[in-house]
Amino acid sequence: MTGFMHPVNLSCRFDPLGETYRSLQNADTSRSIIAEEAWRIRERYFPADVVFRVGVLDLSRVAVPVLDLAMSLEFAVKMLAMEGAAAVDSPGSSWRVGLERSGDAVTVSCGHDSRKSECSFADLAQAVGLFMRGTLDNLTEICPDLLLNDEIARLFRESGARHLGRDQAQRYARAVEARYRSV
Predict the structure, then answer these.
(1) Is 37 helix (H, G, I), strand (E, B) or coil?
(2) Which of 21, 164, 167, 182 has the maximum number of C-beta atoms within 10 A of its C-beta?
(3) HEC profile of 12-70
(4) Domain of life here (predicted)?
(5) Which of 36, 30, 67 is nearest to 178 (CA)?
């Protein structure tokens, strides 16, 4: 690569009026998600349009299970730090992102062609962390009962989302209180 570090842009757009999100307004649906295993929540719920760009390399996707993508990216950053290489793919599709670290530089490649771009490891890690935190904040705002699911509550805590502001802290506190009342 050229050695020029490109900025990382990673964000998502939810459609709270979409069918998936409207169904979460139904208390029975919302409560049934709480009992779901984390992998089902991760892979089957919460589609969103994701913008993922590193410089001019556009890896954006439409209607992707956003929690699955956020968790996969977070894991890939950890593998990148430990092993120097990682990949993120989407089951059932040809979408694949390759990541290779050399020092602080990360080469990001698109799996189905030869396009590549380079960013700093710190920028990628920050973008992925902020993406995870923002995703969890948005999802628990749409469906606060998600915080009653142990795995989602753990992810919310670890992402730092409960420290974003009073609303997030209260959302988490209500979930913890509801959990203790049900025991």
Answers:
(1) coil
(2) 21
(3) EECCCCCHHHHHCCCHHHHHHHHHCCHHHHHHHCCEEEEEEEECCEECCEEEEEHHHHH
(4) Bacteria
(5) 30
The CATH architecture annotation of domain 8-182 reads 2-Layer Sandwich (3.30)
The token duo for 69 is 């993508």
Residue-wise pLDDT for 98-112, tens only, equals: 999 999 999 999 977
- The token duo for 77 is 């950053």
Residue whose token pair is 């710190």: 122
Tens of pLDDT, residues 127-149: 999 999 999 998 888 778 888 88
- Domain boundaries of the chain, sorted by first residue: 8-182
Measured distance between the N- and C-terminal CA atoms of the chain, rounded to whole angstroms:
56
CA 97 – CA 86 distance, rounded (Å)? 9
**How high is the pLDDT of residue 151?**
85
- The strand pairing partners of 136, in sequence order, are none
**Token pair listed for 99:** 């990541």
- 55-75: per-residue pLDDT in tens? 999 999 888 888 899 999 999
What backbone phi and psi angles, to 5 degrees, belong to 10?
-140, 115
